[in-house]
């Protein structure tokens, strides 16, 4: 193995993998943990120069052709660590900009403001925000600042996670993977030339019809923290987990896929409730390190649940859309469609992650 | 306290945050997402940098902190602290010193800012509870001189008291009953703010006005 | 948590997670491990009924419109556990059929024969085979059987892995992620109406210009074996790993992303060799549980290497294409293009994993 | 041996494979992908099923095994064993018994089949080495009666001898020098085939022809 030996001796790990607490090594493909978000964004732009450009030092990814004349601009974002969300959904028919914060930390208002300004063509901008206090507060401040600068701007908050109790006295439900369906339908609506209030109304209608819930088999490890966000026993899983490794609603023993899917499905279905005859889009979303093989097994079980309840699946997203770093697990999302939403979902899109031709 | 005293306070606070970063993160790991220490340290490190070359009046030093926190911290605590310092800056417009009598209204401005921004009324087990008790108690005592040692004492007591609450806002709320018994990271970083205020005032030695 | 409690008590793990050796539990989303491939294929078809159909009990996924009149049929496949390969690459402009064997085990000749028959429109069929003894032997037998039935059929063997010494006395280089670039260009060539010898020639030309190499940070765990395919220390990685967890060429300490990428890049570049002025397609392929965030960091480093050597990247695939179950790690692939190959790569495709519009 | 004897041999082999499945897989884990046991067990389980209702002559029983292995085993070993049994079936066309004198040619047919299919000449540290030595030694001794105990002995010795080789074909070849010292899984499953042949012949008790 001459080719390896002839290099000079290895850089000591402590020179780069340093922010590790408790002395344990982080087995990640990275350089300095503090640089990982910046480097990731650079990598994304380098990989997709035809689709994405960035605003320097801001964590903002834009459609190359933003602002698009005569179209409401769509901005989303949040902490990093959920890739491909949200940069993977920037493109024709979806978002105009995604703002990335540090890992699991909302981006700051000034960065969001930059994104809003960059995508505003004069037709106004809608921000699609996941319901986490940090995201909500930072987007809220950005919207205030943008409005102060005379931009027509509004926001919607997605709260699809049925694992969390909803109440006006609390933080309320979290926004998780269902957010990406909102990007799709709001994106298609905006592309049609609709006004800001119209796009907002479509987004709100969609939010009212999207429900999700997830499960974790293993925790994730944020690169800077250097240790798992929580711990699970060898045979334990956490049902109702959030996408930042926030604790879920229930720990239980590992279950077979069929039981696991049914547990999440029942809770999701009863919540809206979904009913016989409903036409739905479904998402089986991998949390980061669950192989596609397993996600397809989950999808098979989910389809059995739908058949039993006489619901009709008209579109399926099976893959990784809103991850939690290297967490193992998945989330299920059901989206109850009406005629408008079904048509919008089928419209063309050309983002890194979601691409579909005209039909 | 004049602008220079306040800048000293903030410098001291930046040091303490750096020092207690791991502890704050640990508190946040138990009930949130384990970044409160990192978030605060990122912001206050920048504040310290900015203060090195800062030359301005009293409202400006608060404004500088507000802007820096808003643009560097992210998360929930960035906008919350940012709003608090913004409101204090607005209250101090035209003033060159914070006098005894200013404290109740100054704290009220900060506390109301946090309450509005965070959509909290108290009892949700957040940093607001600490700000609110300090502001309200100071107001109730109107007339008596407000000592920073009192502010610290009230803050500490409240932060301790809310440990037994169930969190209703912020990430800790997702834990439901499991949040009971844990300290709230934002409340604790607020206590540290009053602790460094008191230290700053005490170490000035000086005229004893604040003691 | 009434919704969980009201279910009857949990199925004991031993009733389903049974094939686990040494008593340790497999933390996977699955039912019976023996059923996982079948269930996965069912899930894929259910998720993409517009793109895929299956041949019962055969592990074969087909384009819904196969056989396509006037087009050479393309068949690939191999053991399962590499999802999305190969089913994710079935569709217009890519494969006509993918044959899935058991996890990490080549499919049998009768199944491959079924696929060949199903996609033959009379214009002949090309099999694209990864160079593993099992795959080669089983495809070879299938090709003999198909030829005996009067089908015009041929095969090419992909051997892009530079980690393995190449020699006619040995098994030779393995076929790894670079295989998917072959699917793309051969698929576009076939779609153009080319003859079987022409499609084969294009595929062979591509194979001669594709080089790859991978690295593992953690082993993978096959669902039936129930234990990791190999072991790595906490701070150890294996460079030159195969996609089945076969041992690589060298164990070393964990390296920063920049060093890791440069190590693989140098070996790949020197092998062909690639040279200044080359126009290349690149693939940064995740092995299964390495987050997209890290793959983008890798891509950024790879672009720095290309710039330094004055090579021009014209297309980038960054994501999971040829995985190894839940292994952490990645592989790099470089593809030296000529005018024809670059044009073919840019042609439209409509598979589950690779979709691109006409341009 | 007639068709019934051979069926008995294969049934016995299927049992042994089931029993040694974990061991074969372990050998394959060390140098390959850890599935040789599972692969073989999958195929031979089906052979046993098929044999239950089988009623045919001597070549047919070999053909049945060939077809079953080819369509059930997958991997490298499926086509290799499948080819071996196919060639043996072809050689036995028209025969009702395997006589003493048939063994050298029968084994040669099998061994050549494997060599052609696997593109090996010997010395690559695969199952072929065992088949080849058995076939060649039997041929060299032409004239002398071939005993199954001899076949087993030659197979065992060869499988042992190739441990010290560096694998050149199959997955083990990727290991390079690291394959030295490890047993080859396919060679070991071949030894088991001759072991059960010998057991079958011995347990028939009978005329001692084969002992
Ligand atoms: N709605 C709210 N109102 C007031 N304070 C809040 C609210 N939500 C969260 N907090 C405070 O913010 C702290 C968490 O800050 P931090 O960890 O930096 O942000 P994040 O929760 O986004 O990770 C909590 O400990 C709490 O004191
Ligand atoms: N080219 C070859 N020629 C002959 N025998 C081979 C060849 N390649 C592999 N083998 C045999 O096959 C065995 C491995 O079989 P198995 O594990 O079932 O298949 P795979 O290697 O596809 O996983 C090896 O131990 C070796 O004896
Ligand atoms: Mg946070
Ligand atoms: Mg936090
Ligand atoms: Mg195998
Ligand atoms: Mg094997």
Walk me through what this model shows.
Chain A has nine helices and 15 strands. By secondary structure, chain A is an alpha/beta fold. Chain A folds into two domains: 35-207, Dihydroxyacetone kinase, domain 1 (Rossmann fold, 3-Layer(aba) Sandwich); 210-349, Hypothetical Protein Tm841, Chain: A,domain 3, CATH 3.30.1180. In chain A, the strands form three sheets. Chain A has a six-stranded mixed β-sheet, with helices on both faces. In chain A, strands 10-9-8-13-11-12 form a six-stranded mixed β-sheet, with helices on one face. Chain A is globular. Chain A starts with a helix and ends with a strand. Chain B is mostly helical and 211 residues long. Chain B has a single domain (3-204), classed as DhaL domain (Serine Threonine Protein Phosphatase 5, Tetratricopeptide repeat), CATH 1.25.40.340. In chain B, 66% of the residues lie in helices and 0% in strands. The longest helix of chain B has 29 residues, at 3-31. Chains in contact: A-B, A-C, C-D. Chain C binds chain D through residues 21, 79, 101-102, 104-111, 132-134, 137-138, 140-141, 164-165, 169-171, 174, 222, 224-225, 229, 242, 244-247, 249, and chain D through 22, 25, 29, 32-35, 38-39, 42, 70-80, 82, 117-118, 168-171, 173-176, 178. One magnesium ion (MG) sits between chains A (104-105, 134) and B (33, 35, 75). One adenosine-5'-diphosphate (ADP) sits between chains D (28, 32-33, 35-36, 39, 75-77, 80, 114, 118-120, 126-128, 169-171, 184-187) and C (106, 133-134).
**How many H/I helical runs of chain A?**
9
**Biggest sheet character of chain A:** 6 strands, mixed
- CATH fold category name of chain B: Serine Threonine Protein Phosphatase 5, Tetratricopeptide repeat
Order of helices and strands of chain A: HHEEEEEHEHEHHEEEHEHEEHEE
Would you tell me the overall average pLDDT of chain A?
91
Q: How many domains comprise the coordinates of chain A?
A: 2
Structural domains of chain B: how many: 1
Query: What is the string of SSEs of chain B from the N terminus onward?
Result: HHHHHHHH
Helix content percent band of chain B? 55-70%
CATH hierarchy: architecture of the largest domain in chain A: 3-Layer(aba) Sandwich
CATH topology of the largest domain in chain A: Rossmann fold
**Secondary structure tally: strands of chain B:** 0
Given as residue ranges, the uncertain stretches of chain B (5+ residues, pLDDT < 50) are 206-211
**Percentage of helical residues of chain A?**
25-40%
- How would you classify the helix and strand content of chain A by structural class? alpha/beta
State the low-pLDDT regions of chain A, or none: 1-11, 18-23
Strand-residue proportion of chain B: under 5%
Q: What characteristic shape of chain B results from the CA principal axes?
A: globular
Number of E strands of chain A: 15
Quote the distance from N terminus to C terminus of chain B: 13 Å
Largest interface: A-C, 81 and 81 residues
